[in-house]
Predict the structure.
Amino acid sequence: MKQRIITAIIAIPIALFLIRMGGVFYAAGVIVLSYVGWRELRNMLVGAGDKIYAVTGCLPVIALVIAAAISGEKTILPILVISVIAIMLDTLFHYRDGRWISETALGFFGVMYVGVLFAHFVFLRNLTGKIYSAGFLGQLSLGEALLWTVMFGTWASDTFAYFFGCNFGKHKLLPAVSPKKSVEGAVAGFVGCILVIQGLGSCWL
């Protein structure tokens, strides 16, 4: 609990600053998060006895976020094509280990799962349109309003799931993946997320 509070105290002001600033600052933050996300995925796979190519797996993830910030969706498809070719070429140097099929597939998966998704955080923030009034957050563009809706919904889900699960959780959700998570906490997180998003939507959307 203490660690969660400390993380929130540090992370929320940083997120507030980066999302409000947008532009280069926000893109740099997303690049860092995409790299951290890819590293987490790689560590999970290595822990399970699998492997994912380091260079050809990670560079396209970062390139996708940079491309989203600089040129929008125009270069996403070319980068994906180049990344597929690069991973397949990398396979030529690893095929003797006997697991090149799974390693190649996991490389593609990492690029799509981490790179494409984080690139859309940039796309979402850059949406323009109607300006919304959001209380202490001030005036928000369409992209910023939608992004804050996603962020607050995610935080609400985690918070509701944690507190409800700790106090009322009796049925394990998926012990092999996360031993402490419960069905009751998951349901509370889902409901809490919906309520918060609905509330935000009523306020500024």
